Fold this protein.
Amino acid sequence: MELRHLRYFVTVAEELNFTRAAARLHIGQPPLSMQIRDLETEIGTPLFDRSRRHVALTEAGRRFLDHAREILAQSREAVEEARRAGRGEAGELKVGFASSLPYTSTLADTLYTYRQRYPKVGLQLHEMFTAEQFGAILHGVLDVGFVRHGGLEVPAGIRAREIGRDPLRLVVHAAHPQADRGEVSLAEFRDDGFIAFPPDVGSGLPFVLDRLCRSAGFVPRIVQTAREATTQIGLVAAGLGTALLPAPLECVRLPRVRYLAIRDEGAHFSLAIATREGAPNPLLAGFLEVLKEVAG
């Protein structure tokens, strides 16, 4: 049984006249009658009562008609769904992002615009450190990632394109001698203890902290590690040390915390979009087009 058999049957059932049904289908009446006979033979029961002046559905035909219409509707929807997927308008897109990204407009604006433009695409969002995102993209767990790779090496097979840079801020306790200054140099903090990400979590910030401090003439003294940026800010509020974080996190306001601009050259943290090389994906193409409009 093929879909054309169902289309022929439904048309005859609607017209209850083989001549008119054949005209609608743009085929001859004898071939149409033969196709209906073949269908009845395959099913094993008559679907129509036929006479010279009258064609009517049998009880079996009436029951078969509802199912035939449903199958044809499902087949049309399946075809349209496949076409939408081919155009990047349907399916599921898996997106990774670093923990500081929700505090930026780039992620929010991209996701909002994409959802408005492609409402039939499901978005799976995964918060991951940059190194985790690289691995997930290589293994197909993610389609695209918003990463801050800093000093991390980009693995072979991954393309990372910079889409922005956020200034870095020194996060200090309100009682710190430099807390009321608008802009500072890192060299003034050579005696501070720093709160940082553990080196094994896959964040590029520990490498950036080390690079900037060494450029300022000292090696940073790490007194505490924390896996979450907001945890680091809380530890600064508790007086445990100084942290280096991207400027968008300034929106996290605690009474005893101050954010200081850094005048040192290179005191910024790059934001990049990471994808797997040589992996064409219509969904991803639409997402990257929206990102280009949002981030430039």
